[in-house]
Specification:
With about 170 residues, the chain is mainly alpha-helical. The protein has eight helices and two strands, in the order ααααααββαα. Strands 1-2 form a two-stranded antiparallel sheet.
Length: about 170
């Protein structure tokens, strides 16, 4: 399980790293469209395979717990769940599990925080979007400028971030 999760994360990161490569070069609009169309099909197939695998794993194991699989496998499983945006109900299910696991050290506390915000952000259906709690999700609003999506009780966001081991929002934004 650990080895397969690691391999899946490598593939996940490879696909995400190259998804916008075409925009960093001098390709024509037609070339960009062709690349995006072909790449997105592969990208969706990879994410769908990862989702199916995670479903099968979580039928056997409640979570890829630190005590059973180690910190690296916990982080790998979290990243794949984090990127399962087309399956919001699945992300919500895992979020409920992580909510119980991070206080007892069976997952990294920041895993819970990031997934909480990812679920609140509802990337696959913005009509379901809610306020995030930790300010981990946002959008680029200009070259090198990132802005978090709306945050609940934003005056206390840094207290919540600190409680789960995240740096202040101003540090994160940089």
């Amino acid at each position: 399980v650990r080895d397969l999760l690691h391999h899946m994360v490598e593939l996940d990161q490879y696909m995400r790293r190259y998804s916008d490569l075409v925009y960093a070069d001098t390709y024509s609009e037609k070339e960009r469209e062709e690349f995006s169309e072909r790449f997105q099909k592969r990208f969706r197939r990879v994410d769908a395979f990862h989702f199916d695998f995670l479903l099968s794993i979580f039928q056997k194991y409640h979570w890829i717990s630190i005590s059973l699989f180690g910190k690296k496998a916990d982080a790998d499983a979290w990243l794949l769940v984090q990127h399962a945006d087309e399956n919001l109900d699945f992300q919500k299910m895992i979020l409920k599990r992580l909510e119980k696991l991070w206080p007892i050290g069976e997952t990294n506390a920041s895993n819970y925080a990031y997934l909480y915000d990812r679920v609140a952000s509802a990337w696959s259906d913005p009509s379901q979007r809610k306020l995030q709690r930790y300010g981990t999700q946002g959008v680029c609003i200009g070259p090198g400028i990132w802005k978090p999506l709306p945050i609940e009780d934003s005056e206390k966001v840094d207290e919540r971030r600190k409680a789960v081991g995240l740096p202040s929002l101003s540090e994160y934004t940089k």
